[in-house]
Amino acid sequence: MVRGKKPMELRPVDDDPEPKLEVIRLGDEPQPVRLVPEDPVARPGRVARLEIPAVVAVDSRRTHEPGPEDLLDSELLDSVTGEETWGKTPAQSEPLPWGWFALLGLLLTGAVIWSVSYVRQAEPLVAEAHQQAVEVVNESAASDLAMEQLLQRIEDTVKRFCEATSIEAMLPVARHPERVRPLMEQYYGQHPLQAPGFAKVKTLRGAVLDSTDNFWELSVVLGDGESKKFLLQETEDGSIRVDWETAVTYQPMKWDDYALQRPADTTLDFRVLVDEDHFFSHEFSNSNRWISFRLTAPGQEETLFGYAAKGGPVATALLAILGQNAAPHRPAILRLKLPPDMQSRRGVVIDKVLSSRWVYVNPPDSDS
Fold this sequence. Notes:
Blueprint: H1 68-84, H2 98-162, H3 167-170, H4 177-190, E1 198-209, E2 212-222, E3 227-234, E4 240-242, H5 244-248, H6 255-261, E5 266-277, E6 290-296, E7 304-309, H7 313-324, E8 330-338, E9 347-355
Parallel strand pairs: 7-9
Antiparallel strand pairs: 1-2, 2-3, 3-4, 5-6, 5-8, 6-7, 8-9
Protein backbone atom coordinates (compact mmCIF):
# COMPACT_ATOMS: atom_id res chain seq x y z
CA MET A 1 0.00 0.00 0.00
CA VAL A 2 1.44 3.23 -1.01
CA ARG A 3 1.27 6.06 1.47
CA GLY A 4 0.28 9.30 -0.03
CA LYS A 5 2.33 12.40 0.13
CA LYS A 6 0.43 13.63 3.07
CA PRO A 7 2.91 14.61 5.78
CA MET A 8 3.12 12.57 8.98
CA GLU A 9 1.89 14.18 12.22
CA LEU A 10 1.34 13.19 15.80
CA ARG A 11 -2.10 13.18 17.28
CA PRO A 12 -2.79 12.81 20.95
CA VAL A 13 -4.76 9.70 21.76
CA ASP A 14 -6.79 9.57 24.95
CA ASP A 15 -6.65 6.04 26.11
CA ASP A 16 -9.14 6.77 28.84
CA PRO A 17 -11.64 9.27 27.64
CA GLU A 18 -13.38 11.18 30.31
CA PRO A 19 -16.74 9.75 31.10
CA LYS A 20 -19.65 11.75 29.98
CA LEU A 21 -21.68 13.03 32.86
CA GLU A 22 -25.33 13.54 32.57
CA VAL A 23 -26.18 17.19 32.70
CA ILE A 24 -29.07 18.15 34.82
CA ARG A 25 -30.78 21.31 33.81
CA LEU A 26 -32.54 23.36 36.40
CA GLY A 27 -35.85 24.59 35.35
CA ASP A 28 -38.47 26.45 37.08
CA GLU A 29 -39.60 23.44 38.98
CA PRO A 30 -37.22 21.83 41.54
CA GLN A 31 -35.76 18.67 40.29
CA PRO A 32 -34.93 15.74 42.56
CA VAL A 33 -31.30 15.35 43.50
CA ARG A 34 -29.74 12.18 42.20
CA LEU A 35 -26.49 10.76 43.54
CA VAL A 36 -24.17 9.70 40.85
CA PRO A 37 -21.89 6.83 41.80
CA GLU A 38 -18.28 7.64 41.55
CA ASP A 39 -16.23 5.71 39.07
CA PRO A 40 -13.16 4.40 40.92
CA VAL A 41 -11.35 4.13 37.65
CA ALA A 42 -11.80 7.79 36.94
CA ARG A 43 -10.64 8.83 40.43
CA PRO A 44 -7.38 10.79 40.19
CA GLY A 45 -4.49 9.20 41.94
CA ARG A 46 -2.58 10.77 44.79
CA VAL A 47 0.56 12.58 43.90
CA ALA A 48 3.48 12.12 46.29
CA ARG A 49 5.47 15.23 46.72
CA LEU A 50 8.87 15.57 48.34
CA GLU A 51 8.99 18.72 50.33
CA ILE A 52 12.37 20.21 50.93
CA PRO A 53 12.55 22.44 53.99
CA ALA A 54 13.62 25.93 53.40
CA VAL A 55 16.95 27.09 54.62
CA VAL A 56 16.61 28.95 57.86
CA ALA A 57 19.04 31.14 59.67
CA VAL A 58 20.45 28.24 61.67
CA ASP A 59 21.25 26.31 58.51
CA SER A 60 22.69 29.27 56.67
CA ARG A 61 26.13 27.87 57.33
CA ARG A 62 25.51 25.06 54.85
CA THR A 63 26.89 25.50 51.40
CA HIS A 64 24.95 22.58 50.05
CA GLU A 65 21.47 21.33 50.92
CA PRO A 66 21.26 17.50 50.73
CA GLY A 67 18.90 16.10 48.23
CA PRO A 68 16.39 13.28 48.67
CA GLU A 69 18.76 10.68 47.35
CA ASP A 70 21.30 11.71 50.00
CA LEU A 71 18.72 11.37 52.77
CA LEU A 72 17.61 7.96 51.60
CA ASP A 73 21.16 6.69 51.35
CA SER A 74 21.99 8.12 54.77
CA GLU A 75 18.99 6.43 56.44
CA LEU A 76 19.81 3.08 54.85
CA LEU A 77 23.44 3.44 55.89
CA ASP A 78 22.44 4.28 59.44
CA SER A 79 20.14 1.24 59.75
CA VAL A 80 22.78 -1.15 58.44
CA THR A 81 25.50 0.36 60.57
CA GLY A 82 23.33 0.16 63.69
CA GLU A 83 22.61 -3.59 63.29
CA GLU A 84 26.23 -4.49 62.58
CA THR A 85 27.47 -2.66 65.66
CA TRP A 86 24.98 -4.17 68.14
CA GLY A 87 26.82 -5.20 71.29
CA LYS A 88 30.00 -3.39 70.17
CA THR A 89 29.13 0.17 70.98
CA PRO A 90 29.53 0.94 74.66
CA ALA A 91 26.28 1.83 76.40
CA GLN A 92 25.87 5.39 77.38
CA SER A 93 24.22 6.03 80.73
CA GLU A 94 23.64 9.01 82.83
CA PRO A 95 25.93 9.38 85.87
CA LEU A 96 24.46 8.39 89.29
CA PRO A 97 23.73 11.24 91.67
CA TRP A 98 26.23 11.70 94.48
CA GLY A 99 23.44 11.21 97.04
CA TRP A 100 23.34 7.47 96.36
CA PHE A 101 27.04 7.15 97.06
CA ALA A 102 26.60 9.06 100.31
CA LEU A 103 23.71 6.81 101.35
CA LEU A 104 25.71 3.68 100.51
CA GLY A 105 28.64 5.00 102.55
CA LEU A 106 26.36 5.67 105.53
CA LEU A 107 24.95 2.15 105.33
CA LEU A 108 28.42 0.57 105.21
CA THR A 109 29.60 2.72 108.09
CA GLY A 110 26.56 1.78 110.16
CA ALA A 111 27.10 -1.91 109.43
CA VAL A 112 30.74 -1.69 110.52
CA ILE A 113 29.84 0.15 113.72
CA TRP A 114 27.10 -2.39 114.53
CA SER A 115 29.45 -5.30 113.89
CA VAL A 116 32.13 -3.85 116.16
CA SER A 117 29.64 -3.14 118.96
CA TYR A 118 28.09 -6.61 118.60
CA VAL A 119 31.49 -8.26 118.79
CA ARG A 120 32.33 -6.27 121.90
CA GLN A 121 29.02 -7.23 123.50
CA ALA A 122 29.50 -10.87 122.53
CA GLU A 123 33.00 -11.11 124.01
CA PRO A 124 31.72 -11.74 127.60
CA LEU A 125 29.25 -14.32 126.29
CA VAL A 126 31.99 -16.08 124.35
CA ALA A 127 34.23 -16.08 127.39
CA GLU A 128 31.42 -17.47 129.55
CA ALA A 129 30.60 -20.18 127.00
CA HIS A 130 34.26 -21.09 126.82
CA GLN A 131 34.45 -21.33 130.59
CA GLN A 132 31.35 -23.51 130.69
CA ALA A 133 32.80 -25.78 128.02
CA VAL A 134 36.01 -26.10 130.02
CA GLU A 135 34.01 -26.92 133.15
CA VAL A 136 31.97 -29.55 131.30
CA VAL A 137 35.12 -31.16 129.94
CA ASN A 138 36.69 -31.12 133.39
CA GLU A 139 33.56 -32.55 134.97
CA SER A 140 33.39 -35.25 132.30
CA ALA A 141 37.04 -36.12 132.82
CA ALA A 142 36.54 -36.12 136.59
CA SER A 143 33.41 -38.26 136.20
CA ASP A 144 35.25 -40.73 133.98
CA LEU A 145 38.10 -40.89 136.46
CA ALA A 146 35.69 -41.34 139.37
CA MET A 147 33.86 -44.12 137.54
CA GLU A 148 37.12 -45.83 136.71
CA GLN A 149 38.16 -45.67 140.36
CA LEU A 150 34.73 -46.94 141.45
CA LEU A 151 34.95 -49.92 139.12
CA GLN A 152 38.38 -50.72 140.46
CA ARG A 153 37.13 -50.56 144.07
CA ILE A 154 34.15 -52.77 143.20
CA GLU A 155 36.33 -55.37 141.54
CA ASP A 156 38.83 -55.38 144.41
CA THR A 157 36.05 -55.72 147.01
CA VAL A 158 34.26 -58.59 145.26
CA LYS A 159 37.53 -60.38 144.63
CA ARG A 160 38.42 -60.10 148.30
CA PHE A 161 34.95 -61.36 149.29
CA CYS A 162 35.09 -64.37 146.95
CA GLU A 163 38.62 -65.32 148.05
CA ALA A 164 37.88 -65.03 151.80
CA THR A 165 38.47 -68.34 153.63
CA SER A 166 37.16 -67.21 157.02
CA ILE A 167 34.43 -65.09 158.60
CA GLU A 168 37.04 -62.63 159.87
CA ALA A 169 38.36 -62.10 156.33
CA MET A 170 34.82 -61.65 154.96
CA LEU A 171 33.36 -59.25 157.54
CA PRO A 172 35.39 -56.12 156.52
CA VAL A 173 33.81 -56.18 153.04
CA ALA A 174 30.27 -57.18 154.14
CA ARG A 175 27.27 -54.92 154.84
CA HIS A 176 26.14 -54.55 158.47
CA PRO A 177 29.06 -56.60 159.82
CA GLU A 178 27.95 -56.43 163.46
CA ARG A 179 24.46 -57.68 162.66
CA VAL A 180 25.48 -60.44 160.24
CA ARG A 181 28.35 -61.88 162.32
CA PRO A 182 26.09 -64.22 164.38
CA LEU A 183 24.19 -65.08 161.20
CA MET A 184 27.46 -66.06 159.50
CA GLU A 185 28.50 -68.19 162.44
CA GLN A 186 25.16 -69.97 162.45
CA TYR A 187 25.13 -70.44 158.68
CA TYR A 188 28.73 -71.61 158.24
CA GLY A 189 28.24 -73.91 161.19
CA GLN A 190 25.94 -75.89 158.88
CA HIS A 191 27.61 -75.04 155.56
CA PRO A 192 31.43 -75.10 155.66
CA LEU A 193 32.98 -71.96 154.19
CA GLN A 194 34.59 -72.58 150.83
CA ALA A 195 36.20 -69.77 148.87
CA PRO A 196 35.00 -70.05 145.24
CA GLY A 197 37.62 -67.58 143.95
CA PHE A 198 37.22 -64.77 141.45
CA ALA A 199 37.82 -64.77 137.68
CA LYS A 200 36.33 -61.61 136.13
CA VAL A 201 33.46 -59.14 136.11
CA LYS A 202 30.70 -59.78 133.58
CA THR A 203 28.21 -56.96 134.02
CA LEU A 204 27.56 -54.05 136.34
CA ARG A 205 24.43 -51.95 136.63
CA GLY A 206 22.92 -49.53 139.10
CA ALA A 207 20.07 -50.60 141.39
CA VAL A 208 17.66 -48.09 142.95
CA LEU A 209 16.20 -49.41 146.20
CA ASP A 210 13.65 -47.26 148.04
CA SER A 211 14.88 -44.13 146.21
CA THR A 212 18.45 -44.95 147.27
CA ASP A 213 20.83 -44.93 144.30
CA ASN A 214 24.06 -46.12 145.93
CA PHE A 215 23.44 -49.82 145.22
CA TRP A 216 25.00 -51.86 142.42
CA GLU A 217 24.15 -55.24 140.96
CA LEU A 218 27.27 -57.10 139.82
CA SER A 219 27.54 -60.32 137.86
CA VAL A 220 30.90 -62.12 138.03
CA VAL A 221 32.52 -65.32 136.92
CA LEU A 222 33.82 -67.28 139.90
CA GLY A 223 37.06 -69.22 140.01
CA ASP A 224 35.22 -72.49 139.31
CA GLY A 225 33.65 -71.03 136.14
CA GLU A 226 30.16 -70.50 137.55
CA SER A 227 28.38 -67.15 137.34
CA LYS A 228 26.99 -65.42 140.40
CA LYS A 229 25.29 -62.12 141.17
CA PHE A 230 26.15 -59.87 144.09
CA LEU A 231 24.41 -56.82 145.50
CA LEU A 232 26.83 -54.09 146.58
CA GLN A 233 26.47 -50.77 148.36
CA GLU A 234 28.72 -47.74 148.27
CA THR A 235 28.87 -46.36 151.80
CA GLU A 236 29.25 -42.72 152.85
CA ASP A 237 33.00 -43.08 153.25
CA GLY A 238 33.31 -44.40 149.66
CA SER A 239 33.99 -48.01 150.57
CA ILE A 240 32.20 -50.87 148.82
CA ARG A 241 30.34 -53.53 150.82
CA VAL A 242 28.82 -56.82 149.66
CA ASP A 243 25.38 -57.86 150.90
CA TRP A 244 26.19 -61.24 152.39
CA GLU A 245 22.58 -62.24 153.13
CA THR A 246 21.47 -62.05 149.48
CA ALA A 247 24.75 -63.64 148.36
CA VAL A 248 23.90 -66.84 150.28
CA THR A 249 20.08 -66.30 150.37
CA TYR A 250 20.19 -66.55 154.13
CA GLN A 251 17.36 -68.36 155.98
CA PRO A 252 17.26 -69.02 159.74
CA MET A 253 16.60 -72.68 158.90
CA LYS A 254 15.87 -74.71 155.81
CA TRP A 255 12.40 -73.89 154.52
CA ASP A 256 11.30 -77.47 153.94
CA ASP A 257 12.44 -78.40 157.48
CA TYR A 258 10.49 -75.50 158.91
CA ALA A 259 7.33 -76.49 156.99
CA LEU A 260 7.58 -80.15 158.09
CA GLN A 261 8.88 -79.79 161.64
CA ARG A 262 6.81 -76.69 162.49
CA PRO A 263 8.72 -75.67 165.63
CA ALA A 264 5.99 -74.52 168.02
CA ASP A 265 6.03 -71.09 169.64
CA THR A 266 8.76 -69.75 167.36
CA THR A 267 9.13 -66.48 165.45
CA LEU A 268 11.59 -66.49 162.53
CA ASP A 269 12.36 -64.21 159.61
CA PHE A 270 12.22 -65.84 156.18
CA ARG A 271 12.87 -64.75 152.60
CA VAL A 272 9.82 -65.99 150.76
CA LEU A 273 7.80 -65.57 147.56
CA VAL A 274 4.27 -64.27 148.17
CA ASP A 275 0.98 -64.77 146.27
CA GLU A 276 -2.57 -64.02 147.39
CA ASP A 277 -4.63 -67.20 147.93
CA HIS A 278 -8.09 -68.37 149.01
CA PHE A 279 -7.22 -71.31 151.22
CA PHE A 280 -8.83 -71.12 154.69
CA SER A 281 -8.84 -73.91 157.26
CA HIS A 282 -9.11 -74.62 160.99
CA GLU A 283 -8.62 -71.46 163.06
CA PHE A 284 -8.17 -69.45 159.83
CA SER A 285 -11.40 -70.65 158.19
CA ASN A 286 -13.21 -67.31 158.61
CA SER A 287 -12.49 -65.43 155.35
CA ASN A 288 -14.17 -62.31 156.76
CA ARG A 289 -11.46 -62.12 159.40
CA TRP A 290 -8.34 -63.32 157.60
CA ILE A 291 -6.57 -62.84 154.29
CA SER A 292 -4.67 -65.86 152.96
CA PHE A 293 -1.25 -65.71 151.23
CA ARG A 294 0.62 -68.57 149.58
CA LEU A 295 4.27 -68.72 150.75
CA THR A 296 7.11 -70.56 148.98
CA ALA A 297 10.92 -70.38 149.06
CA PRO A 298 13.41 -70.62 146.17
CA GLY A 299 14.79 -74.09 145.63
CA GLN A 300 12.36 -75.66 148.12
CA GLU A 301 9.31 -77.86 147.63
CA GLU A 302 7.02 -77.13 150.58
CA THR A 303 4.24 -74.55 150.57
CA LEU A 304 2.79 -72.77 153.59
CA PHE A 305 -0.19 -70.43 153.92
CA GLY A 306 0.36 -67.24 155.84
CA TYR A 307 -2.57 -65.40 157.38
CA ALA A 308 -2.93 -61.75 158.28
CA ALA A 309 -5.84 -59.99 159.93
CA LYS A 310 -8.12 -58.42 157.34
CA GLY A 311 -7.74 -54.64 157.30
CA GLY A 312 -4.65 -54.79 159.53
CA PRO A 313 -1.24 -53.20 158.76
CA VAL A 314 0.34 -56.53 157.72
CA ALA A 315 -2.41 -57.42 155.23
CA THR A 316 -2.43 -53.86 153.89
CA ALA A 317 1.36 -53.88 153.38
CA LEU A 318 1.31 -57.26 151.61
CA LEU A 319 -1.54 -56.25 149.30
CA ALA A 320 0.41 -53.09 148.44
CA ILE A 321 3.49 -55.18 147.56
CA LEU A 322 1.40 -57.43 145.33
CA GLY A 323 -0.27 -54.40 143.73
CA GLN A 324 3.07 -52.90 142.69
CA ASN A 325 3.58 -55.62 140.12
CA ALA A 326 1.07 -57.97 138.51
CA ALA A 327 3.76 -60.65 138.15
CA PRO A 328 3.34 -63.58 140.56
CA HIS A 329 5.72 -64.61 143.34
CA ARG A 330 6.67 -61.25 144.80
CA PRO A 331 9.78 -61.46 147.06
CA ALA A 332 9.56 -60.26 150.65
CA ILE A 333 11.13 -60.82 154.05
CA LEU A 334 8.38 -61.84 156.50
CA ARG A 335 8.44 -62.56 160.21
CA LEU A 336 6.48 -65.79 160.65
CA LYS A 337 4.99 -66.96 163.93
CA LEU A 338 3.79 -70.43 165.03
CA PRO A 339 1.56 -70.00 168.10
CA PRO A 340 1.32 -72.98 170.46
CA ASP A 341 -1.53 -75.47 169.95
CA MET A 342 -2.07 -74.42 166.30
CA GLN A 343 -4.45 -76.78 164.54
CA SER A 344 -3.71 -75.83 160.90
CA ARG A 345 -0.89 -78.04 159.56
CA ARG A 346 -0.06 -75.61 156.74
CA GLY A 347 -0.94 -72.30 158.31
CA VAL A 348 1.35 -69.69 159.90
CA VAL A 349 0.70 -66.19 161.23
CA ILE A 350 2.42 -63.37 159.41
CA ASP A 351 3.57 -61.20 162.27
CA LYS A 352 5.42 -58.42 160.32
CA VAL A 353 6.56 -57.37 156.89
CA LEU A 354 10.27 -56.60 157.24
CA SER A 355 11.10 -55.78 153.61
CA SER A 356 9.38 -55.72 150.23
CA ARG A 357 12.44 -57.46 148.71
CA TRP A 358 15.12 -59.90 149.88
CA VAL A 359 17.52 -57.19 151.00
CA TYR A 360 17.42 -54.80 153.93
CA VAL A 361 18.06 -51.29 152.65
CA ASN A 362 18.47 -50.28 156.27
CA PRO A 363 19.18 -52.62 159.19
CA PRO A 364 15.87 -54.17 160.41
CA ASP A 365 16.43 -52.88 163.94
CA SER A 366 16.26 -49.29 162.68
CA ASP A 367 13.05 -49.83 160.69
CA SER A 368 10.04 -48.09 162.19
